[in-house]
Amino acid sequence: MTGTVLAAPRPVRAPARDEASGAWTAGYTVAISGDEPVFAGHYPDFPIFPGVCVMECVRRAAETAPPPGTGELRLAAVESTRFLAAVHPGDELTIDVTWSPRGEAWRCAAKVATDRGPAASVRLRYRQEATPC
Amino acid sequence: MLTAAGVRATLPHRYPMLLVDRVLDTGDDRIRALKAVTLNEPWYARLGPSPAEDDLAYPDFLLIESWTQTAGILATRLAGDAAEGQVMLFGSMSGIEFHRRVFPGDTVEHHARLERAVNDTMIFAGESTVGGEPLLTVGQITMAFRPGGTLAPPAS
């Protein structure tokens, strides 16, 4: 498959629905090994897991369990992202994902942490592709 | 104009994360640069013999990285000597809209402009196009220069 990160997300908390808001929450971990190809160039002799790759981990985790009953969802926007601390080889990311309905679209919000504390917060927006007749 | 050699001399990024090929022009507060997408990108290396068209879409978040590296070239130029020994950090972003996808053979043109500079933090905005069509809208991205030592991996 096409992607910038080799590591696959591992589910640690199954998707659960909040009846009041209609939001779905789930938990994942992603083990970032020193073998990730991006470390070779980001940066030589100074490996930092790129912020956009943290975002890619969120996206892959979230897309393993999109909200049930939606059509095909496609990434439309990064509403916001904050990087709070660097991620290094050997870190394990814990990713808490919340899918919330926003009219015809869905917001995917995630908190990312390592065992040293918060690493990033990410808010993505997905739109539903028209279902073929 | 900055050739590939100049880009490589300016940014600390290396293969496979050096995602700007050429700077077309820079002004006091703006920059325009190119990123060419090829089928030889490492992100496609693990595709099977009969990939779907969608599989060849260039990873969306790498477009953001490529745009940000473009802004980073301008940031480095603006910071001048103050950037020596410092690491450029990606702090936050908001309002990034994806309008279409790009594929091998496409050349992406990034436009970035400095919106504000506060102390050692710079805020950039802009857009990217492909074949003159909108590709990416960048509402706001913040970058800061920090001493390299502050990012060192934890002692284990």
UniProtKB/TrEMBL annotation, chain B:
Species classification: Bacteria, Bacillati, Actinomycetota, Actinomycetes, Kitasatosporales
Pfam family for this entry, one: FabA
Coiled coil ranges: none
Keywords: Lyase
Protein name: 3-hydroxyacyl-[acyl-carrier-protein] dehydratase
Species the sequence originates in: Streptomyces griseoloalbus
Stored Gene3D superfamilies: Hotdog Thioesterase
Family: Belongs to the thioester dehydratase family. FabZ subfamily.
Keyword Lyase (UniProt): yes
Enzyme Commission number(s): 4.2.1.59
Top-rank EC class of the record's enzyme: lyase
One Gene Ontology term of the molecular function aspect: (3R)-hydroxyacyl-[acyl-carrier-protein] dehydratase activity
